[in-house]
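Students often ask why inverse folding is considered easier than folding. One informal answer: many sequences map to the same fold, so there is more than one right answer. In these notes we will look at a single instance of the problem. The structure comes first.
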């Protein structure tokens, strides 16, 4: 349980880092827009994520999406 919570927190922070980078690239006006990563795309880079429940990682992404929507909605 502790490992799953830690992995969800790790994914949330990594996805947040990527979202901020994507937003900064969009502000800078770089021609190509990339989509935000998914939790599954980090599993090859960080093998310890395979030990965590995939639904917990997906929920971390959903929570981040909700937070972003609320933040930019005003």
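Output (designed amino acids):
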């Amino acid at each position: 349980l502790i490992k799953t919570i830690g992995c969800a927190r790790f994914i949330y922070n990594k996805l947040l880092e990527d979202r901020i980078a994507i937003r900064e690239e969009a502000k800078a006006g770089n021609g190509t827009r990339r989509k935000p990563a998914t939790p599954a795309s980090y599993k090859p880079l960080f093998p310890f994520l395979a030990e965590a429940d995939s639904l917990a990682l997906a929920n971390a992404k959903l929570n981040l999406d909700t937070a972003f929507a609320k933040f930019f909605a005003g």
